[in-house]
Amino acid sequence: VSRTVRFEQVAAACNYRSCWAVEEAAEAVAAVKELRRRPGPSLVHIRVRAGAPDNLGSQPLGPPEAKGRFMQFLARDPDAGQIS
Asked: How far is residue 71's CA from residue 77's CA, in Å, rounded to a whole number?
């Protein structure tokens, strides 16, 4: 969305109790584990690289379906699997 806006700082200025910015999968897992232990509101800004591998293919998911999959992922045991 923006290379210059630090969303975790914006959230902190809006009185979010916990704010993280992460770039690696392991960082995201650690941040999600930690936010589950803390009272909210919380924000985890997961920075992603632009583009996609050539062999990735496309997912025929719309925004509601993508949200549902993400919510299911968050509901899982954080130690149960890897983020790929």
From this structure: 12
Give the CA angle between residues 36, 40, 44 to the nearest 5°: 65
Give the number of residues written for the chain: 84
The tokens for 61 are: 């998911």
- pLDDT tens for 5-53 read 899 999 999 999 999 999 998 998 899 889 889 998 999 998 887 777 7
Cα 74 from Cα 65, distance rounded (Å): 14
Q: Are 21 and 47 in contact (CB under 8 A)?
A: yes
CA nearest 32: which of 68, 74, 67, 83? 74
> What is the tens place of the pLDDT at every residue in 52-78?
777 877 777 888 898 898 888 878 766
Answer yes or no: are the C-beta atoms of 38 and 18 closer than 8 Å. yes
